[in-house]
Amino acid sequence: MVGQGGRCRSGTVRAADRGDFTVTTSGPAARAIQTLSRPFSLGALTVPNRIVMAPMTRQFSPGGVPGEDVAAYYARRAAAGVGLIITEGTFVDHPSAGYSDAVPRFHGDDALAGWARVAEAVHQVGGKIMPQLWHVGMSRKAGSPPFPDAPSVGPSGYALDGTPDAGRAMTQDDLDDVIRAFADAAAAAERLGFDGVELHGAHGYLIDQFLWSGTNHRADAYGGDLASRTRFAAEITAAVRKAVSPDFPVLFRLSQWKAGNYDARIAETPDELEAILGSLSEAGADAFHASTRRYWLPEFDGCDLNLAGWAKKLSGKPAITVGSVGLDKQFLGGSNGEQAAVSSLDPLLDRLERDEFDLVAVGRALLADPTWAAKILSGRTDELTPFSPEALRILH
Fold first, then answer.
1. How many Cβ atoms sit within 10 Å of the Cβ of residue 24?
2. In CA terms, which of 113, 216, 308, 334 is 20 to 30 Å from 293?
């Protein structure tokens, strides 16, 4: 339940409390350092602090193969204090999984060799890293690489805007193939030395398309009531859980909103959300990464908990919050958008101190400033770089 667990310590932070970072500050900056510096355990993994790098698609992997620049990109942020990196979405081994040959895949000897180098680079600087496993489903446009002849597939062939016959409804063979692809990718991640995996079940992509009644119109065991709509997500989670070691962390990312439909909801009430989370927990999900556009907004009427707070309360599992952390303007879709200035972390710290959620994922702020975590964890908030689309023309 919310409120369980210890609160952060009070008083001045000593340099020894931050390991590699020299801390000489007190007051408001010390509060952020103390609260965010606490380690956290996920299965066999100990995350050294509460800062997570959110997955953000970049399309910097020609042919789907992450190169040395990708390894350097993640290693730089790990070296600067990010506790856990969740990579950009990576396509599983299914012809309809992707929409670009510049987005990395998590299959094939060449791509997996590239990912092994990424994991090694992050570990060499003391970081932790998980790949996000992804199938875009009906978000894929016909003719898109890397397999232009592959059809777009989803629960019912409906696009996110409700257009029927935009693709093909998945058969049982299709479902089995995708489930197997996620499990194979997770097994490869553990074999390559990654610290866990995240399943992308949010934002209107394939897994989420089954969860949402707006795109799932099936009349079989995978559609209809909420339990049936959750079946595909639970079967993927169970297959992944079986494919990896019992203490290898499996995260599940979920959202209410969809790309282009920010009012969509997979759960209208806490009871409905509890049913979804319960099925996924029983299937083997170790933690929930609850994606919102603004972390400070309550998810349901009558309570100020955000989506991550509800996920933790209802499932009893750890939760990660995300949504415009450290910026004064909300997430607008994608990594681009208007300039956003640095904002106070006090509202976030209030929630983290009362254990509403456990970890904090940071997106655009870490794109704009690779040393964001180091500056936060050493009290140098006056040095933070604001987010601007112009600064992202060369992501480093």
1. 12
2. 216
What gap in Å lies between CA 111 and CA 90, rounded to an integer? 10
Q: Is 297 inside a domain boundary? A: yes
Using alpha carbons, list the distances in angstroms from residue 161 to 157, 215, 226, 237: 12, 9, 21, 27
For 7-39, how does the pLDDT look when each residue is reduced to its tens digit (9 = 90+)? 222 222 222 233 344 444 556 688 999 999 999
Q: How far apart are CA 49 and CA 359, in angstroms?
A: 8
Please tell me the total count of domains within the chain.
1
308 close to 356: Cβ distance less than 8 angstroms:
yes
pLDDT level of residue 360 (50, 70, 90 thresholds): very high
Question: Which residue has tokens 């062939």?
Answer: 157
The domain in which residue 77 lies consists of 15-392
Residue 3 has pLDDT above 50, yes or no: no
Over 144-165, what HEC string results?
CCCCCCCCCEECCCCCCCCCCC
CATH number of the domain enclosing 212 = 3.20.20.70
Task: State residue 383 phi and psi, 5-degree precision.
Answer: -100, 0
pTM: 0.91
The catalytic residue positions are 205
Question: For residue 41, is pLDDT > 50?
Answer: yes
Q: Please return the burial class of 245, using the count of CB atoms within 10 Å of its CB with bins 0-12, 13-18 and 19+.
A: exposed
Is the residue at 1 inside a domain? no
33 close to 14: Cβ distance less than 8 angstroms: no
Beta bridge partner(s), residue 387 = 340
Q: Is residue 388 part of a domain?
A: yes
